[in-house]
Amino acid sequence: MEKVTGKSVTGVKNLSRGNIEYILDLAEKIEPIVKGESTAQPLKGKILCTFFYEPSTRTRLSFETAMLRLGGGVVSMADAQTTSSVWKGETLKDTIKTIENYADVIALRHFEAGAAVEADSHSRIPIINSGDGPNEHPTQTLLDMLTIKKEKGRLDNLKVAIVGDLKHTRSAHSLTLGLSNFDNIEFVFVSPDTFKTNDWIKDIVKEKGNTYVESEDLANAILDVDVIYMCRIQKERIEDPAEFAKIDGLYDLNRALIDNCTKKPIILHHLPRVKELDEDVDDYEGAAYFKQTYNGVLVRGALMTMVLNKEDEVK
Ligand code: NCD
Fold first, then answer.
1. Which CATH number goes with the domain that contains 202?
2. Which one, of 55, 119, 42, lies nearest residue 81 by Cα?
3. For residue 204, what pLDDT is reported?
4. Measured from the CB, is residue 139 less than 6 Å from ligand 1?
5. What is the pLDDT of residues 147-189, one digit of tens each?
6. Whose alpha carbon is nearest atom 11 of ligand 1?
7. Does residue 97 sit within a domain?
8. Residue 130 located in a structural domain
9. If you take atom 8 of ligand 1, which residue's CA is the nearest one?
10. Are 145 and 179 in contact (CB under 8 A)?
């Protein structure tokens, strides 16, 4: 296990297996504080700024919950494009040069790939990428991986189906990159031809010694997997309505499909769900998507503790 050495967390692409294990271990260590069983306040006196150019429910609220539970404070811009000076034309650089005078750490969500790396280059304080356009969503992946670890007891030796708009879904990109660091991972990418995972991500899967197959057939693809990861179709990132129509409603995971699976897979979804995951899955014992939302508090709290160098205060 080793701590991330840079000041910020901009993507899973830069994280090693040891970095991921370090963060997940710290997430489990802060759980007693989050649950109120320990009175430690490792982030007392620290301020988080959540600055979001795109909509969010879970990412922003779980960051803020984690900071408050760990003893710190929060300032928040939930709708930066319309209610901050971004609306007046302020650049990302000037925005960051301003926020660094108010807060100790920034959780940034932006509509452009690479925005977190750019923000980091302008910032004195740590940036945690909370989604940069269609590129990456590292905090989502870490909570996905914590959920898999807790539910399956391991992060090696897994067959994982990732289903939906794999071209534009940043959570799917980061999850693939994150799991690729582990051993004997078999990916099953389920999407129509024009929504396939990017080649550079598939290249990394192979470079790291893991394997993938691609399929368009959900029912067959999931028969013997350990994990099914459902993704929302990223409507706002698909410009051509005809393209969107090809995938809208195409995949719909329901209880009957899961009951055909041989290995009682766990079901994950980054949420929000729209048409791709039926409510009749909610009382299936392997349904873990609301557990993911809880694990988000742990992982985001761990990330802030790590980048603010407060691990020793976790008791
Ligand atoms: C996702 C996102 O914003 O990338 N939401 C999330 O953070 N859980 C997924 C989505 O919007 O579909």
1. 3.40.50.1370
2. 55
3. 98
4. no
5. 999 999 999 999 999 999 999 999 999 999 999 999 999 999 9
6. 272
7. yes
8. yes
9. 270
10. yes
* Residue 196 DSSP label: P
Please report the pLDDT score of residue 211 as a whole number.
Answer: 98
Q: Are residues 97 and 132 in the same domain?
A: yes
Q: In terms of domains, do 127 and 25 share one?
A: yes
Q: How far apart are CA 10 and CA 170, in angstroms?
A: 13
Task: Provide the number of structural domains found in the chain.
Answer: 2
Residues 248 and 210 in one domain: yes
Q: Are 52 and 107 within one domain? A: yes
Computed over every residue of the chain, the mean pLDDT equals 97
Average the pLDDT over each of 34-48, 58-72, 83-97 and give the range with the smallest value.
83-97
Residue with CA closest to ligand 1 atom 1? 270
Cα angle for residues 39, 315, 156 (degrees, 5° grid)? 125
For residue 200, tell me if it sits in a domain. yes
- Is 100 in the same domain as 178? no
Which amino acid makes up residue 109?
A: R
pLDDT tens digit sequence for 2-25: 999 999 999 999 999 999 999 999
Ligand 1 center to 271 CA (angstroms): 6
DSSP E strand boundaries for 4-136: 47-52, 73-77, 105-110, 127-132
Is residue 3 situated within a structural domain?
no
Expressed in angstroms and rounded, the spacing between residue 237 Cα and the centre of ligand 1 is 12
- pLDDT (0 to 100) of residue 19: 98
Ligand 1 pocket, 232 CB below 6 A?
yes
Q: What's the pTM?
A: 0.97
Tens of pLDDT, residue by residue over 276-312, are 999 999 999 999 999 999 999 999 999 999 999 999 9
- For residues 239 and 106, state if they share a domain: no
| Whole-angstrom distance, CA of residue 176 vs CA of residue 200 | 11
Domain that holds residue 308: 12-136+295-313
